[in-house]
Amino acid sequence: MSKREDYETRTEALLQPIAAAMGVEIYDVEYVKEGSDYYLRAYIDKTQGVSIVDCENVSRALSDALDREDFIPDAYILEVSSPGLGRALKKDRHLAYSIGQEVEIRLYKPLEGVKEFSGALKSFDGDSIVITEETGDRVFARNDIAVIRLALDF
To answer: How many CB atoms neighbour CB 105 within 10 A?
Structure first.
């Protein structure tokens, strides 16, 4: 397990009882370096939407728990937020919850000269993701997908 994965796993374990007590669910946890700064991001969600108060309360409780455990030696910035409307679908549970919804897929390399596709998420398994486009179903190898996110429809 990489340092990043270890930090994310341990943070999610600390966050689980906090999220349960505050009536939110954990959408994702990520530890990333951007420029010279490290960020520990916790994304929370709930059916009726996440408020700034939810983020603030979870952030304070998580910050206290992280200070007690002190397993990340690097200086980092803690952020707690909603995953947003155009949320990335990183985990199988995100995909399962999004079946039937419009998604956008961006590939690492062009397929038939195109890198971006959109359609309704039809199904997925460990190796592939299927979307329904206007012309029919299209299958993508999961390894070819750089990002899949919910489509924003304005």
So the answer is: 23
